[in-house]
């Protein structure tokens, strides 16, 4: 970490909220991915119907679930940032009270 790195508690709180907001947007995009306009018949007729079925299953099983997991992990990150904010805030309050007691 650089010696010049600084952040404020307000910034930490704001960042946690921003990440949470992005996670909600990612969830909406995952839902849109699941609603592909391509169907089995779009892959060249009956002979290639199974490719279309595999495509549709792959979209749901792999891509959509991966994007949803990304959103879940973004929420976990947001919660960790918010919890860090709470911890630092509590420590700052405790330290301020301790310093006042010394003076």
How big a fraction of the residues is strand? under 5%
Shape: rod-shaped
Tell me how many strands there are.
0
Radius of gyration: 23 Å
The share of residues in helices is over 70%
Instruction: Give the CA-CA distance, first to last residue.
Output: 33 Å
How is this structure best described in words?
The chain has helices at residues 9-34, 49-102. The longest helix has 54 residues, at 49-102. The protein is built from two helices and no strands. With 103 residues, the protein is mainly alpha-helical. The radius of gyration is 23 Å and the shape is rod-shaped. It has a domain at 67-103.
Write the layout of secondary structure elements.
Blueprint: H1 9-34, H2 49-102
Helix pairs in contact: 1-2
Keywords:
mainly alpha, 2 helices, 103 residues, rod-shaped
Summarize the structure.
The chain is mainly α and 103 residues long. Helices cover 78% and strands 0% of the residues.
């Amino acid at each position: 970490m650089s010696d010049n790195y600084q952040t404020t508690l307000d910034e930490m709180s704001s960042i946690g909220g921003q990440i949470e907001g992005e996670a909600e947007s990612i969830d909406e995009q995952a839902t849109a991915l699941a609603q592909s306009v391509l169907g089995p018949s779009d892959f060249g007729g009956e002979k290639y119907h199974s490719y279309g079925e595999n495509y549709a299953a792959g979209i749901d099983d792999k891509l959509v679930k991966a994007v949803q997991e990304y959103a879940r992990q973004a929420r976990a990150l947001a919660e960790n940032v918010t919890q860090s904010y709470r911890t630092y805030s509590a420590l700052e309050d405790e330290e301020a009270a301790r310093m006042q007691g010394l003076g």
